[in-house]
Amino acid sequence: MGVGNSGKSVADEFREYAEILLDRDSEFDGAPSGDPPLLASDYRRALYAVLALESELERTTTSPVSDGEVEAYRLGGAAMIDRIHIAIGEAWAPRRLAAREHRRHIGRPGRPEIIDEPDEGSQPMT
Q1: 3-state secondary structure of 97
Q2: Contact, 88 vs 51, CB < 8 A?
Q3: pLDDT-derived band at 101, boundaries 50, 70, 90
Q4: 101/21 Cα distance (integer angstroms)
């Protein structure tokens, strides 16, 4: 990955930007004023982009590499993308979606904070 003006990688810059937008959107939930920083369609577009990721990642070296190294790189990229897709699926697990009515009150004054923890003995969805 290339490096931006701040010395951070382009990926780091985009991640920081996304985190800032998410933080602003969370703050908006607690004190709505004006237009929200993100709309449901923005979340949908971002999630579709992530779910469309393929395991064919760009190789950043120009040095010769063995077939085994190429395969290890490909498998490592595929495993990382799988972890991202699993994380989204887990975030949308039925037990979490069922609790959404309670979660909308997180961080609001006078409301208890609800932590979304996995149920004891639950297994990740596969």
Answers
A1: helix
A2: yes
A3: low
A4: 23
Q: Do 100 and 114 form a contact (C-beta atoms < 8 A)? A: no
> In 3D, which of 98, 96, 94 has the Cα closest to residue 115?
96
The type of residue at 87 is A
The residue among 44, 45, 71 whose CA lies nearest residue 57 is: 71
> Which pTM does this prediction carry?
0.60
Q: At what angle do helices 67-91 and 40-51 cross, to 10 degrees?
A: 150
In this prediction, residue 114 carries a pLDDT of 45
Residue 24 has pLDDT above 70, yes or no: yes
Residue pair 19/37 in contact by the 8 Å Cβ criterion: no
End-to-end C-alpha distance for the chain, whole angstroms: 31
